Amino acid sequence: MFLLAFLALIVERFTGYPDWLFRLIGHPVTWIGRLISQLDTRWNREADDFATRKRMGIRALAVLMAIVILVSAVLQDVLLVIPLGPILLILVAASLPAQKSLERHVRDVASSLKHHGLPAGRAAVSRIVGRDVEQLDEAAVCRAAIESLAENFSDGVVAPAFWMGIGGLPAGAAYKAANTADSMIGHRSPRHEAFGWAAARFDDLVNLPASRLTAALFVVAALFVREASPSNAIRAIRRDAKNHRSPNAGWPEAAMAGALGIALAGPRSYGGEMIEASYMGEGGRSELVYEDIYEALKIARIADMLLIGLFGVLAVLMWQV
Predict the structure, then answer these.
(1) Running DSSP on this structure, what letter comes out for residue 278?
(2) For the segment 148-182, what is each residue's pLDDT rounded down to a tens digit?
(3) Domain residue ranges in the chain
(4) What is the Cα–Cα distance from 137 to 134, expressed in whole angstroms?
(5) Tens digit of each residue's pLDDT (9 = 90 or more) over 57-99
(6) What does the pLDDT read at residue 69?
(7) Which residues cross the membrane (predicted)?
(8) Which of 5, 68, 3, 4 is nearest to 34 (CA)?
(9) Do 252 and 150 form a contact (C-beta atoms < 8 A)?
(10) What is the CA radius of gyration of the chain?
(11) Using CA atoms, how far apart are residues 230 and 207, in angstroms rounded to an integer?
(12) Which of 185, 244, 180 is CA-nearest to residue 31?
C-alpha cells in the first residue's frame, strides 16, 4: 500500500483539504472527534473510581479503533472494485496527511510577525499550539511555531503516511483516530487522567516509528539547506531527544533545533501553570526571529519531498515483488 500513501501525499501536497469540502461534509478528523466525544460523555463518569474510568478508557479506545478500521476497510474494498473507485480512494486517503495546511499555518506566524508585529504573531501561533501565548515575546512565538512544525510534521504527515503504507487506508485511518483521541482525551486533567490513559499510551506507541523517521528526514534535509547543519542535528538528537517530556516529540524537535543551531522547547505555560521542560538543541541560539521560521520551513519542505520520494521508491519495489 505504499503506492496509495505515495499518491495521497502528492495529491494533498498540491491541493490540501479544500475549505468548501470541509464546510460541506466536514473532515475525517471531525467525524472521529464526534465519536470520541460520545464515548467520553457516556463512559467517562465522574462518579466512578480511577480504576473503573481507566478500564472504560481502554474499552473506549478499543471500540474507536474497531469502528474506524471496519468502516475504512469496507470503504477501501468497495472503492478498489468499482469504476473510478481507485481515484476516489486516493482522494479519501489524501485527507489523512496535512502537509499543505501545516505549512500554511506555520508560514502565517512568520508572515504575521513580519508584516503586523508581535500581537498578530501571538494570534497566529495560538491557532497551532496549546500553550498560553499572551506573554510570549517574538523569540518565544518563533520557538513555538518551529516546535509545532517539527512535531506536527511527524504526527500529522509522516505518521499517517507511514501507517497507510504499512496497512492501507484502514491503518492510516486508525492512526488518525488514535492521534485524535490523544489530543482530545489523552492529557493529564482531572477528567481525563484515568479515562485517557490508554489513548495517550497507544499514541506514544504508534508515533514511535514516525518520530524516528522524521528526525532522519530532517538530518538529510539539512544537507540541502545552506544555513543548516546535519552533524549538529545528529548530535542534538543523541543528546537531547531522550530528555523531552514526550518519548517521541523530542526526536523531530531536537533534529530541527540542532540543524538550525537554535534552542527549542524549554519551560512554557499551559492554562496558567508553568511546565518545566528540557531544551532541545541545548546551548543553541535562543533569540529567535521570524526568519528562523522560514529556515525551518525550508527543512520541512525538503523533508517532505524526501518522504514522497522514499514512498515512491518503496511503491516501485513492492510493485516488482
Answers:
(1) P
(2) 999 999 999 999 999 999 999 999 999 999 999 99
(3) 2-320
(4) 9
(5) 999 999 999 999 999 999 999 999 999 999 999 999 999 999 9
(6) 98
(7) 20-37, 58-75, 81-98, 302-319
(8) 68
(9) yes
(10) 20
(11) 23
(12) 180
